Fold:
Amino acid sequence: MSSNFGTLFKVSTFGESHCKSVGVVIDGCPPGLKLVETDIQRQLDRRRPGQSKLTTDRKEKDQVQILSGTEHGVTLGSPIGLKVNNLDQRPADYGEMETIPRPSHADFTYMAKYGIKASSGGGRSSARETIGTVSSGAVAEKILELAYGMEIVAWVSSVGPLEAAPADHQTITREVVDQTDLRCPDTEIGEKMRALIMELKDGGDSTGGTVSCVIRNVPAGLGEPVYEKLEAKLAQAMLAIPATKGFEIGSGFEGTRLRGSTHNDPFVMKEARLGTATNNSGGIQGGISNGESIYFRVAFKPPATISQPQQTADYQGTSLTLEAKGRHDPCVVPRAVPIVESMAALVMVDMAMRQEARLALRPS
Structure:
């Protein structure tokens, strides 16, 4: 299925980029959770288009509505329906692209799979679909905060060739990240990133980047052996985000350059619990959380839709020049930050609920 994610905490997203509305149905949310629209809106505001000059010029308020699953601001345990209306569609911008697949876009592959595609925008492949992810992720995050004090913080760590100084995984906060609309805590390199994005936007081009994320206060024992490893589910979740092309956790690819004597994380006592002196493992060993912070990085490619002339071909193979119209991000990473956080929350709450079910049935 193209819309379902999760085992116990399940989400099913719906909607296309230019239809009447997009949203999500959450099944498995525990009853008794205080939940109102403002709990969800904060993350949607960080994701919405048109929030700064660095993003697409499409203007959307992205006001969420809770349709079901709550009463008097408290969850009932039944499915929660969340909806956001599309208000600023311009399908006319996509008339030419109805017959021409955009280079490196999902236009061609959707047509190859289904024999039909959304005539305007990217349909289900559009980042507009992530509204459902962010909405449900905000609910998941509230559960994690109340149950474990878990914190999830993501930030922009690179744009194009520009790399920010490594952030402190133990102290970085969303307040620090959101001090600029770029969401890069390294303000010095952030200004260079901003200049590059604006230059590309003015020139009708685009660039990629990376988003880093840390999950703190994670209890040991989350994750399922072999096929449902915690890092495998995190990787699946992150690579389900539009425009992603890479995922690395802990020491990642750089760890391949080290020797085991340097890379190993020795065990030490930490405030009456066994922990590790270093964290090259990124908080996961054998696919199961070890109680240390989980940290990873996600790579995003340059947005495919650009307004520069590109030599390409239509669906019949006729060569032509395409100058794509429409309003698109020159770089997705500033708006991807809350999407990464939300995807992480969905994975963590599902794994936590699975572990709680196992513990509840453990013989005393």
